[in-house]
Design a protein that fits this description.
mainly alpha, 3-stranded parallel beta sheet
């Protein structure tokens, strides 16, 4: 979370509205002092500032994930889950892995450990949810994720 906070402090666009700029000037010093969550709890961002934060967060995560995947493919990094998998019991039904969101790095770790991954989707480019077809194609690792979202009343 600290790396994300630092990224936001240095990458939130300078093209914010004057009101958002003022609010961001209140928020960003607290990010490095108290952490991202505490800063955003002290000063709720406007809808447009939140959109800028979401956009910048998405860019940060995409870049970090791409770097990690590249390191794994270049054999300069081994994911911790890849190291753990050989030590797990592997029941016939597969190893259930539950994540808070769709996690490509968990899938990559399993594949690097020599296991197939069942995401319950069939197809590569236009995948559609078909748990039964997916289950019967191979059942080694089941990657389930729990979607979480925050809602706000306007």
């Amino acid at each position: 979370m600290a790396a994300l906070g630092h990224h936001l402090v240095t990458h939130i666009p300078a093209s914010l509205s004057p009101d958002d700029t003022k609010l961001w000037e209140d928020i960003h010093p607290l990010i490095e002092k108290d952490g991202l969550e505490a800063a955003l709890l002290n000063y709720a961002p406007s809808a447009s500032l939140e959109a800028a934060i979401v956009q910048s967060t998405g860019e940060f995560i995409a870049n970090a994930e791409a770097n990690i995947i590249s390191e794994v493919f270049n054999k300069s990094r081994t994911l911790r889950l890849t190291k753990l998998i050989p030590h797990l019991l592997k029941p016939d039904a597969g190893i259930p892995i539950v994540t808070t969101n769709y996690d490509r790095l968990a899938e990559l770790a399993c594949e690097e450990a020599g296991l197939g991954v069942d995401t319950m989707f069939c197809g590569h480019f236009a995948a559609r949810l078909e748990p039964q077809d997916s289950y019967w194609s191979f059942a080694v690792v089941s990657n389930w994720w729990v979607r979480t979202c925050a809602t706000s009343s306007q």
